[in-house]
Amino acid sequence: MSENTRFYHATKIGNDDVILFHTLTFSYLILKGAEFSHWLGAGHDKLGKSLNAELVKKHFIASAEKDAGLFKKALEIFSKRKQRAPSICAYITTECNMRCPYCFQGSGDSHLTLNAADIALIRDSVKQIQERRGRVRPVIFGGEPLLEKNRHIFSGMMEAFAGISTYPVEIVTNGTMLRKFMPEIKRYEDSIDVLRFTVYGPSGINDRHRFADKGNKKNFQDNMRNIREVLSETRKIKIFLNLLLDNRTVAHVPELMAELRQEGVLDSDRVIPLFGRIQFRCSLLKGDKYPHELKYADYYPELVKLLKARVIPPGSISGSEVELLWKIFTGWESGACAAPNFKGCRAVYPGRYCFYPDGFIYPCTEIAGCKGNAIGEFRPGLRFFESMDAWENYPEVFLRECAECKYIGMCNGACPATNIGDSGRLDRVTCINYKDSLDKFFTELDRSGMLKNV
User: CB neighbours (10 Å) of residue 199?
Assistant: First the structure.
């Protein structure tokens, strides 16, 4: 008697159809309700020869041995690690001139700033990392890294990275002070790859909610002016516009896109708009205390609606714990291959080293500054702690703890920082709810006419 795979997810769509999705190969079939019932009950002889063959071909009908063999093969292929350099985040300061209500740095000491001696220590540490792991791509981060009083620190950091021949730098900024930094931006243009701005909805929402005093700020228009100035004054620096979504901003995306077009910033191919969900993993400001959070299971369905209405372009969709869903869907459309991952998130492989003004190194921006989670220190010199091994070997944890879960090929061990936030332990996995995420995603794709049988 033939058997069914354990790696399946089923969502009812339309009047009587069911999408049968393979959670390891990411293939799917749309079945009639009766066909699904026959498959689910192992009544394969009632399905017809052609459909039966298709179900076998796509691994929905598979013996336990073949199912185990498929999983073993996936592990062998997708758990291999190549020699890759980690990403580097250098926090110039934790201070910021804005008070965004969703910011995960809203608590604790907000006035730590690097000094001149720290720049040399970070330079020497990154040089050692490059010698072991290869050339790195640094990110200059904050707080707000482009505060006028820290211009000398910013310049020193740019000189430091250029002096050890890292890849060009990305700078994450709220953009408020960028005009005062244009001499430095032009001076270091060849060493800057990306300026990443954050925008919180159209101007009315952005300017109202990102300042503590609720004053008559013009942050949105100032940012647009600053972006145009960067485009006119430089030759190749790219602008990434992070368009932040929560329940307060998602309904205003049409207004936001209209304003961006009106400001002319989308006319340049150097400006890349990217939507992202405001998310809370191990932050001091927990998601349950932020009433406007757009849940990750609802994030892609909302973007599918906007895509169907031609409000947003497909290339602007990114940014969520369940981002693999979008990669799978676009792979179906383009023929590109989305694949399972058993190597851990980017903080695990190839690794992320966050150099914080407290002198410690952290593995993730979400837990930077929480001293108990440091993996090393750069002051007085580079030294990694034993805790770094736990991060590097995290796949051993989720491959053990999640071995029987049919979504293991999708969740990639979920988020280690979330584990710490929920239980205080890296090795206690907090699951991502892929069941609800898939159900809502497939339902909206079907409702929007974007789900076709294959």
Answer: 24
